[in-house]
Amino acid sequence: MILIFFGPPGAGKGTQASLISKIYSIPHLSTGDILRSIISQQDETSTKLKKIMNSGQLISDEILNEIVSKRINEKDCLNGFILDGYPRTKDQALFLDSILENKKIKIDKIIDIKLSEKTIMSRILSRSNIENRGDDKELVIKTRIHKYISETKPVSEYFLTRYPDSFKVIDGDQEIEKINHDILKLLKNE
Questions:
Q1: Which domains are present in the chain?
Q2: What is the average pLDDT across 18-36?
């Protein structure tokens, strides 16, 4: 089973992907986790990534595409995987499509978790207080929401057009358990 999770910051993509990963015994591939894992290694790639990230630059599509391509070719991904945080750009989406087509693999579901800006603000500020994260200030959150709308939202719209039968929208203005229930219901009604 191949799943892609979309949604704005605070939508609970990581939480839901992690829950679904355990239920279906498939890896949850978060680009953030993958990058942190690579950076913790002492090799040429980790040095290159550290340099890019320490300079405040974003990791290029080319590098991310290569990293994700390698990761989905690992043995634990043979029965499927969940992508969370990738693809974020149209080039990444096109690259992913070409990889999956070459492997003759189809995306089973694309799950777009929708929620209001008010809920996004509330969730991230609450998480920030619990986790003592200083980077989750109101202005930063609004910037992240704007970035999602301008950069990543068009990618989810691309997938909606490309895979209309697989693209499903979930109401994110609900409790975690209810969102999870709705996602599982979609997956079981395959």
A1: 2-188 (3.40.50.300)
A2: 91
